[in-house]
Amino acid sequence: MASMRMLRPAGYPANRGAARWVSDALVTLLAGQMFDVGDAMNLPYDDGSLDACRAETLLQHLTDPHQAVHEMTRVTRPGGRAAIPESGTGTTLAGHPDRETTQVIPQRPADDAVQAWIGRQLPRLFRHAGLTDPSGTPAMVLAGQQMIRMLLSRHVDRLGEENMLTPQQVRQWWSQLDQRAAEGPLIAGRGVFVVAATRPYLRPARITATKGQDVNAGRQQA
Description:
By secondary structure, this protein is of the alpha/beta class. It has one domain (39-201): Vaccinia Virus protein VP39 (Rossmann fold, 3-Layer(aba) Sandwich). Helix content is 37%, strand content 23%. Helix 6 runs antiparallel to helix 7 (167-183). The relative contact order is 0.15.
């Protein structure tokens, strides 16, 4: 396996059981690779020191995603690639019989996110950072009953705490979701945007002479 460095953001994950499990599982899977703790706004790597740079579902949590993309560009070598998969917050779907409540619940993650629609802005962010040829692939990632619970449970709880949904509506929504899953395959998932781009090589400066001017004249006079 090629050498790899992975950056775990300082203080992350904190009080997030699922995120901690995933993060620790990656550490085990990639045993022998190098892990660093740092700041996405100020990456602890030299300019052009990485062949490729990837940030997965990170920008949606940042107050300044532009700076994070600029940092990714800085540490990627000319000719290297930068890639960002971002979940389409607010695009969660579930084959649930209660259409009215199901329209309210998936919108809540978008309301809670710092950068809810950042996935739809990735090509523009890449160009502003100086990356070229951005290519994007939108997709719908299907999820099972357990994944939908993990994605939505805290948002459903907050809707109940804020009296946007009654306790009965919350219980009934989960019960009907479980029933649908028990009856057969449950169609549910979330949209994902995957965008990649290239850091261009620096072009050498070109010396041009104005019309009628001898570019060697200065040398001859010297």
